Amino acid sequence: MDKPTPKDDEVLVRVRAASVNPYDWHFMRGMPYPLRMQAGLGKPKDPRLGVDLAGQVEAVGSKVTQFRPGDEVFGCARGAFAEYACAADSKVVSKPANVSFEHAASVPIAGLTALQGLRRGGVSDKSKISSGKKVLINGAAGGVGTFAVEIAKSFAAEVTGVCSTKNVDLLRSLGAARVVDYTKEDFTESGPRYDVIFDCVANHTLSAFRRVLHAKGSYIMVGAADGGGRWMIGLLARLMKASVLSRFAGQKLAMIGAKITREDLATLGELMNTGKVTPVIGRRYRLSEVPEGIRYHEQGHARGERWS
Ligand SMILES: NC(=O)c1ccc[n+]([C@@H]2O[C@H](COP(=O)([O-])OP(=O)(O)OC[C@H]3O[C@@H](n4cnc5c(N)ncnc54)[C@H](OP(=O)(O)O)[C@@H]3O)[C@@H](O)[C@H]2O)c1
Questions:
Q1: What is the domain range of residue 226?
Q2: Residue nearest to atom 24 of ligand 1 (CA)
Q3: What is the CATH number of the domain that holds 132?
Q4: What does the buried/exposed string (b/e) look like for 8-37 if buried means 16 or more CB atoms within 10 Å of the residue's CB?
Q5: pLDDT at position 128, please?
Q6: Candidate from 253-262, 267-276, 293-302 with smallest mean pLDDT
Q7: Is residue 2 part of a domain?
Q8: Is the CB of 22 under 6 A from ligand 1?
Q9: Which of 24, 186, 222, 232, when mutated, tests ligand 1's pocket best, judged by the most ligand atoms within 8 Å of its CB?
Q10: Per-residue pLDDT tens for 26-70?
Q11: What is the pLDDT of residue 307?
Q12: Nearest-CA residue for atom 11 of ligand 1
């Protein structure tokens, strides 16, 4: 494809690293179907894939004042799986000098989702009450989950991670105080109660999650293992149920949609800069191997984030 030209409020980035998200294959397949309202009904409005990137600014639009050619940035763009991509200047921030392009590119969507989801559950750097809060991360070995473990830990929460056998050691190394291997144990059947359940998998009923949630706890839903299926019927039904129950139960039951903000990208940059968060890179691919990377990711058992 032609090298893109930045609009007035965009920067042209020479991509040094990009990472794969479920978002990418959802847009590639046009699935769940309701997504096509945004992505294009018969065919994609934009055939380029890839959102997360890190790289060097090559050129800036006429209204961009905060970046100059040569600056190193990370954030979200259109068509990140390419040598060059354009990003709105509001969706990228400076990359800390001591953080690699690969690590920085792993962060944006997954890191923002983890940070904003935890905050919604009352776990944040600004809240003193994060300290000692019992937080369970379901799907803790994936892109969002690994960031959620590290971020919650950095906010002094007591973290329990749920994953399969092969990822138990990984979660321990990230700082999880307790790890549940879901192939051997169902955490909804017994065990402690949690202040926050951060759910990337949605593989139990709401009632099962609520059973192990404190009376005033928060259940934050992030995603589902089946990606919402074709029509998102199960997901929408769960959302409606959560919204009704929230009004009557003391527990907060909510779903979050990540927002790309410079402020939160900068917070994530600072967490990396200070060594509190070190992204997990499960696999590496060359640009020509992006299809393989997406194919692997679609299977739903990716480990951490992944760069191409
Ligand atoms: N709301 C938002 O704004 C937003 C933003 C980003 C992503 N999402 C959604 O959030 C979900 C997670 O995204 P991601 O990037 O973390 O995906 P991912 O990297 O593909 O990770 C999925 C993880 O789920 C784990 N898993 C699968 N079955 C499990 C089970 N039964 N119990 C516990 N863990 C299980 C896998 O670990 P094992 O290999 O150990 O099974 C894998 O590590 C996706 O549905 C995605 O679409 C939502």
A1: 110-255
A2: 139
A3: 3.40.50.720
A4: eebbbbebbbbbbbbbbbbbebbbbeebbe
A5: 76
A6: 293-302
A7: no
A8: yes
A9: 222
A10: 999 999 999 999 999 989 999 999 999 999 999 999 999 999 999
A11: 65
A12: 223
